[in-house]
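From: lab user (bench 3)
To: helpdesk
Subject: output format question, protein + manganese (II) ion

Hello, I'm new to running complex predictions and I'm not sure whether the block I got back is the full result or only part of it. Here's what I submitted:
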Amino acid sequence: MIRLLHISDIHLNTGFASKERVVREQLKEGLMKSFENAIHYALGEAVDGVIIAGDFLDNGKVSYKMEQDILNLMEQLLKAEKHVFYATGNHDPMNTLQILNRLETNPYFHCFEDDDIKHICVEMKSGEWLEVVGCGHKSKNEKRNLIREFPRKNNDNLWIGIGHASVPSALSVGAKEQYMAVSLSEIESLKYDYFALGHIHIQQRLSERVAYSGNIQGLNYKEIGHKGGYLIKLDGDRIEMESLCFNEVQWEAFDFELDESHETLSQLESELTTFVSEQIADIKKSANQLVVRVNLEGRSSLAHSLREVENTLYLEACLKRIVGLLNVDIKLMSVNSLLDMEMILSEKTVLSEALSVTRHVEAHEDLINRLLALPIYNGRDNKKEVLQKILETAEEELIDCFVRGK
Ligand SMILES: [Mn+2]
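Helpdesk reply: Thanks, we reran it on our side. This is the complete output you should expect:
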């Protein structure tokens, strides 16, 4: 049996520029710690090798300390006779981490650095032979489907493939840039025993033998929940996969509905404290540190006070301290004042007239046509949806303007 740890997209030197200094440092340390967690796992378990499927680094700016930390962890693995299979990605193309060249002569270190399709055959401790086919990214903008050129499995050895590539059918957050795009059926036609993918940060098994390990610590609020890698066990024609958790810091986001019952900020603070504590009760047992965003929605008499930045900053600080979090962000999604809408609409005012247009825009065909002819809609194919969104916002702005005299 061959056991491999598959990780990818560590983005080790991400800057987290939007966060304040203390939080930024802790997020960066968390990334290194998450990587360490993965390496320590590999050292402690009967793992034959570690696959790193690209974007190990976020960019080419690597501090001396980080270089030394990386080298140190890699050397621990190699000393323990664990193979390292590292393929570069779009963030860490060829020559990004030159310090690893120093490991080139180590028989346990295998780097798939550029666009050459490398095919190696490695003898494992069990005496089994593992054939590994992979390639890296020669530049930051590798769009060619190099995986299509990989050789098909043609003997009884165990074969794995490694690539940092987009599979268009995979689940991703928003539209992710397509690098080395390859279809699942093309990968499957290679008949490998396992294909380790990197690039998409959501862990997912695309088929029995093709998977993205996901990243090992979230980088932003789109990347919530546990993060880690896969333990792959290959035994003859059997495959077993286990999802593992390595993240040191965990990102979470929760929606909180405001209503007329929230009358003072201090009352809101105490309700938010209880709410967030409840939401994270189970998560906190597994993650060491949490970064939490609270999305506020709804109508409340506190809308105005919440729009004052110093008030939300203070609320964030309170939540962070009381609940014991690494950081809290409060985001006003759609927070609006309490209003008697029925009354506003029933009155005969400019506002009620304007609102009746935004609410029943479909009744004004010529108006729609004039609006859609505006330059902001040029080249958009979902014009009506965009217009609808703008009208929804416009309603709030109209009310702000007329009722609150802004
Ligand atoms: Mn990538």
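A quick orientation on your result: The two ends are 71 Å apart (CA to CA). Let us know if anything else is unclear.
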